[in-house]
Amino acid sequence: MRRLIPPRALPFEPSALPWAFVFGRVAANAPRHLIDAKDVQIGTQTDASPNAARICLEWAFRTLLDAVPMRSAAVPTVPGLSRKWLWWQVVTAIVLCSTVPSSAAPPELARWFPTGGQRGTTLELKAEGTLPDWPISAVASDPRIALVAKETKGVFEVTIAPEVPPGLVTIRLHGPQGASVAKPWMIGGMPEVLEAEPNNGVMEAQSIASLPAAVSGRLEKSGDVDLYRVALTAGQQLVVQAIANRGLDAPLDSCLELLNTKGLVVARNHDSRGLDPMLVFIAPEPGEYLVRLYGFPSNPDSTIGLVGGEAMVYRLLISTGPWIDAVLPLALSKAHPNSVQPVGWNLPEAITATPRQVDPQSLADQVRWHPDWAEGYSHFAADLLPYPSRRLEATATVQLPQAIEPPVMLSGQLGLADQRLAVQWPVTKESRWRIHLESQALGLPVDGLLELWDAEGKRLVRQDDGGVEGDPKLDWKSPFDGVVTLRISDLFGHGSAEHLFRVSVLPIEPSFRIHRAEDLVRGEVGKPVEIAVEVERRDGWNTPLEISVEGLPEGMQCPPVRSENEGDSAKKVVLQWTSDRPLQQAIRVVAKPAGPPDPPARVATQDTTTIPLWLSVVSP
Ligand SMILES: [Ca+2]
Ligand SMILES: [Ca+2]
Ligand SMILES: [Ca+2]
Question: Is the Cβ–Cβ distance between 417 and 479 less than 8 Å?
């Protein structure tokens, strides 16, 4: 519903903007009309005058239509307002609309709400942010998600095909004035529920009638606390996960508590998955339980109380059913047969007992999520590696390390407190190795510690940091010919069924990577479109690269550029061409070696050679 704004509040300068006369005078007798505060604000800027002119025109027409059939009944109530005068004003507005160049701002997308949708359903989705134009288009990273703009500004009807796998997607806005950045949205397998305030107290907790449920909520203002009521039978296992900071990028550090009907906290979690909490609870007795969510700013500031605000959105997954947390191993190999085993809660034994064979070539979606396994939400790593991926057995102890053959990715579990796993492999003098443990970056809780030991029992290296999100990563050059042992543990000795990790052991070889901070390229018809790309030459990469743009419309070309080993282009290149028409589309920047690598690589590690981008070229 758009707001009625009294004409005297309109901030127009009649001398500077002649059409404001129309606006004000027509408005003096206008019925409920179409305008909102943002349009009016835009109308004060000369560069956005087409918008205000359009509003003015629309207004004048509406008033005219109202006034004409009533003849003298309505018109005389506004002094000086005659049919002739109105027609003249309409003509003025039409002239203004057609002569002022169109140069409104592109849409600015802050977030999507609700936070996600269930596969195989259609729902309403709101783009929150600043949207100067309406209707506009929206495009999801998965083409099986269709979005259609509805009449209400900012609202889309989104249809999710049943085959879209659960997990994270991104959705971007675009229109004639340009494109927004893409913002995250979750695809789930559970029915969606919207939070309903008030729900702050035990007595007003929102009842979740059937489980599983995916609740979209918001800590809407400072001090907001959200409570949900669920009923459990004795022995039933409840899994609750909040997704806010990870995945949705909300500036929120949320906390979860579970209360019994007496109001006592029976379970609590703050930071199981990054800053996001997760609870698993077995009900000792039947009855109602309350899930309570509150939060703090993700970047601590001077705020003392509980945080709230428009941006503090969260997604709460609540289930007593099968829930896959991960599969082991946590990566798959392109070239080798893979058998995977789901890990999680409330999983039938038939699922967990026998590892399943999967063909990574044909099951890109299913390796991330298998419809036969669990209806619950799950997101597990499915990187397809060009080298083997293996299980690290619980029997691989410091006393009896597991022999490995690098390059290899090992996936394991620190199931017990103070557990230490160990592997060993032969090394030659001067050989260089890169060892990288990932758990927190995958949304898993291990705070990894890596140690290298020699055969005499001397510790060579200790590393608990250096990777993404606090995961450890180390480079090591062997000073001897012999055998080296890698010990893997949790820095604080924590262990549980959830404490999963993967660690890669790779010889260091030259490689390259291209990257770009923004995934959006903006340009104007008739002017050069520029794409700046950073080039990273790692571990002595010594071959020129050819960098090109793929996916442009037929007949349009961007000349490829070369990144030489020395000079400015070694670190950064700029691709450039001119478009003769407006464009809103996906493109890719691709980097390839301009010749055989020198020295030749023995192992192709996972170099990023392609950057997916959105190209937005608008009319000047
Ligand atoms: Ca709330
Ligand atoms: Ca609340
Ligand atoms: Ca937290």
Answer: no
